[in-house]
Every structure is written in structure tokens, then in C-alpha cells.
Design brief:
The protein has 435 residues and is of the alpha/beta class. The protein has three domains: 207 residues, Nitrogenase molybdenum iron protein domain (Rossmann fold, 3-Layer(aba) Sandwich); 143 residues, 3-Layer(aba) Sandwich (Rossmann fold); 30 residues, no CATH class. It is built from 17 helices and 15 strands. The strands form three sheets. It has a six-stranded parallel sheet with strand order 1-12-11-10-13-14, sandwiched between helices. The chain has a six-stranded mixed sheet with strand order 2-7-6-5-8-9, with helices on both faces. Helix 7 links the parallel strand 6 and strand 7. Helix 2 packs across helix 3, helix 2 crosses helix 8 and helix 4 crosses helix 7. The radius of gyration is 25 Å and the shape is globular.
Length: 435
């Protein structure tokens, strides 16, 4: 396997880094056109278009959407069908995710108001969305963890209706996903996937209710569909391939770091795994571990494609330079694999999630640590945040003006409105000055 080896001191480092970070999953024109056609068809023909797409892409021939609908009874049946160990794992993961997001609600999910010196009441009202759609991938694998991470914050935010869309290829409904819906409080679902599911949730059909916002990851067709329906509904983000960047100070066992790099590479050939470290000898030891551990992994072919295509080890001149480089990359996951993670963490500004210390493997964040695993990718951590309770709420400003306040504020408004040439604005404020 050929894994890139970069050095920040090399003359060609910048060009090599540019090649490494080049985005490779932009929707091509054929995908954009195909998705646009599916969305237009769903918008025009509703259930009939959804049924045709489901037959074509998932191999499920249904006469009506009712055959594809999932209820709380289906979720309860999934719960009954899984093992006790699986039930325990789902419950414990859900409890930790719930505890984290309840604190998030306390920190930033509640409104406020105050009165100023003139007795004006000013504030912010926070209300939950009425109905959200959660897309759960289900083509190549089942993702009950993704369902928990999307549905639980929505319910904590106070959303009364959480509608799940999950593909069921050849009609196979994964019991672990159904059980996760049971634990997370999903209210309704449909065994429909792909762009047609996004279209149905965004526009509504005779059988599928229109939602206010769609969250959850998916393949390039799902991501493209979310981008195209934005505006008709809200969306969380356009997720790209998974990413991990390990900042190492050479104190973590090399095997651990190698496996952490694998943990993201096994997602997708386009996933990205990068190691940054100032110790060249340690990098060599990690590379030895990579070659030794790789043959024993079931998804080694995917891992090889990912590491050869988009992976790298990078020697830096210092751990501080490694952090500067990390901020330029702004990855989804950052592991501060160090004996002193709390010293290094303040230097990391741009990341979806930061894992502190050798014991904090990224995989724990994926499943059960508590913080959300729906994270910004492709450098968008420079301006985006993880999915949270706040994504399922909206904020409304409150303004009550006293008579005294109308005089104080009115004088300001008149001056500014006339400066902008908006005379009606000025007059509306001036009328209240003369009472």
C-alpha cells in the first residue's frame, strides 16, 4: 500500500498538501440532473413517483405508500426482535446522548427577555420546529447510531413529530434501526430512501407529510437532493466523506493510532485519515503498525483505497505547527493523542469534534460518548457546528415599546430612515413622537 508521506519542511509541501485536500466528491452534472429530475417528479406526482423510484432503486414493489409506512408498532417490534445485549447498548448510548443534549438545551436552547431604562421589553422567544424529517442511511449498512444522534436532540428540543426515512433494499427492514427509533422517540417513518425520500419530505405527498427541516447523512444522491430542496425546507448540512486528523506527540501506542486512522478509512474510499506528528521515528512506527494490522480487517480493500487516495502521514516541525496545519484543514474529527491534551487543545480552533488524550478513540464519539456525531466535513468546521438541539428550534425576537421608549427610539429611527430615503419608515416613527 502506498500511503503519502509529507514533510512541512519540504520544498513541495504546499503543492502536495493542496493535492491531498482537494475535494473529490462534488456532485457531477449527471448526478445533479438526475436528482433534479427525481425531485421534480416527486413534487409533481407525489406518491406515484415515490413508489416508482422505490421499485427501481430499492427493488420494492409496493401498491401504495401505506405498505412502506413505519409506525411505533414497527419500532416496538424491532425492539423485541434484537438481543438483550443490543437493547442494553442502545439504551446506554441513548441515555448518554440524551444527557449531553439536555445540558445543551439548558445552555443555549431557552429564551430570554429584559426591560431597558425606558421600560421597553426586549427578548428572544425559542420554539421547536413542528415537524422534522430524519434521513437514516440504509443501503450498504445500517446506522442506528445516526438515528439516535438525529432524533434524540429533536425530541429534547420539543419537536412533536419526528418522521424517519430509511431505505429498505429488497424490503429488508433492519430490526436494530427499528429498535433505535423506538428508543429515540421517532413518531412515524417510511421505508423509502434516496433523493425520492428527500423530495417527499421536502414537498409532501398525499401520504408523506411535509416537514420543516431535514437532517441526517446519506450518499451523494441524498446530499445533492438536500442541497436542491434547501429553501423549501431547512437542512442541517451537506455532509461529505468522513475525516480524521490525529495530532500525536509520540506517546500513544502506534497500534492505537493506526487503528484510529482505519476507523474512518473503512467508511468510504473517499474518507480521509491524516496523522500529524513532529517525531519522524514515531511516524515510521505508526506506518509499520498500519501495514501489520491492515490484512486482518474485513474492510481492508476500502481502507486501502481511502489511505492511498486521500490519506497521509505528515511530519511537522513542532506540535504547534501541527495545530496550525490542523486549523487550515478544519477536519471533522481531531484526536489530540498526547500526554498533555489540555495544553494542546486551546491551539485547535477549527474542528467538528476534538478527542482529548490517548484513551479517547473517535469511535466512542460515533456511538456513545454523548456529543453529537453529525459533524461538519470538507473544511466547513471553519464556520459550522455539530448537529444539536439548536438545529431543531427557531428564534423569534420580542419587542414591546413603552410610550417613553417610542420617543427615545423614534428619534433615532427617524434620523436613520430619512438618511436611507425611506420616508414611510420615518413617518411611522415620527407619528408616535407627537402624542
Amino acid at each position: 500500500m502506498k500511503l503519502r508521506r509529507l514533510d512541512t519542511g519540504a520544498a513541495d509541501f504546499e503543492s502536495e498538501l493542496h493535492a491531498l485536500l482537494r475535494v473529490t466528491q462534488d456532485s457531477d452534472r449527471a448526478v445533479e440532473a438526475r436528482v433534479a429530475a427525481i425531485l421534480a417528479d416527486v413534487k409533481a406526482r407525489g406518491d406515484a413517483a415515490v413508489l416508482e423510484c422505490t421499485a427501481r432503486y430499492d427493488g420494492v414493489d409496493a401498491i401504495s405508500i401505506a405498505e412502506l409506512e413505519l409506525s411505533v408498532n414497527d419500532f416496538a417490534a424491532g425492539w423485541a426482535a434484537i438481543t438483550q445485549a443490543q437493547r442494553d447498548a442502545l439504551e446506554r448510548a441513548a441515555a448518554r446522548i440524551r444527557a449531553f443534549h439536555e445540558r445543551q438545551l439548558d445552555a443555549c436552547g431557552r429564551g430570554f427577555s429584559y426591560r431597558d431604562d425606558d421600560g421597553n421589553l426586549l427578548g428572544q422567544k425559542v420554539t421547536p420546529l413542528d415537524r422534522v424529517g430524519i434521513y437514516v442511511p440504509g443501503g450498504k449498512a445500517a446506522y442506528p447510531s445516526s438515528l439516535l444522534m438525529n432524533a434524540i436532540p429533536a425530541r429534547i428540543a420539543g419537536v412533536p413529530e419526528v418522521v424517519m426515512a430509511v431505505p429498505a433494499p429488497r424490503g429488508e427492514r433492519n430490526p436494530l434501526v427499528m429498535a433505535a427509533a423506538h428508543v429515540a422517540g421517532v413518531t412515524r417513518g417510511f421505508a423509502v430512501g434516496g433523493a425520492q425520500a428527500i423530495g417527499a419530505l421536502a414537498y409532501g405527498t398525499a401520504s408523506v407529510p411535509r416537514v420543516d427541516k431535514i437532517t441526517g447523512p446519506g450518499n451523494v444522491y441524498v446530499a445533492t437532493a438536500k442541497r436542491q430542496v434547501f429553501g423549501a425546507v431547512g437542512i442541517d448540512m451537506i455532509a461529505g466523506p468522513s475525516e480524521i486528523l490525529v495530532l500525536a506527540d509520540a506517546t500513544t501506542p502506534p497500534d492505537w493510532v493506526a487503528m484510529d486512522l482505519f476507523s474512518q478509512a473503512e467508511h468510504d474510499p473517499l474518507a480521509q485519515s491524516i496523522l500529524l506528528c513532529p517525531d519522524a521515528g514515531y511516524i515510521d512506527r505508526v506506518r509499520v503498525s498500519i501495514h501489520r494490522l491492515l490484512p486482518g480487517l474485513p474492510r481492508r480493500d476500502v481502507i486501502v483505497a481511502s489511505l492511498e487516495g486521500r490519506g497521509a502521514t505528515i511530519r511537522t516541525r513542532s506540535i504547534e505547527e501541527a495545530c496550525e496545519l490542523c486549523n487550515r484543514i478544519a477536519p471533522e474529527h481531531v484526536e489530540v493523542s498526547s500526554r498533555e491534551p489540555l495544553r494542546i487543545e486551546p491551539l485547535v480552533k477549527h474542528a467538528g469534534a476534538i478527542f482529548l488524550g490517548a484513551w479517547a478513540s473517535e469511535s466512542l464519539g460515533d456511538y456513545c460518548a454523548g456529543p453529537n456525531h453529525v459533524l461538519p466535513t470538507s473544511g466547513t468546521a471553519r464556520f459550522s457546528s455539530p448537529l444539536g438541539v439548536y438545529d431543531f428550534q427557531k428564534r423569534t425576537s420580542l419587542i414591546e415599546v413603552s410610550e417613553s421608549g417610542a420617543r427615545t427610539l423614534g428619534a433615532i429611527a427617524v434620523e436613520l430612515a430619512e438618511g436611507e430615503g425611506l420616508q414611510a419608515h420615518a413617518e411611522a416613527a415620527r407619528m408616535r413622537l407627537s402624542t
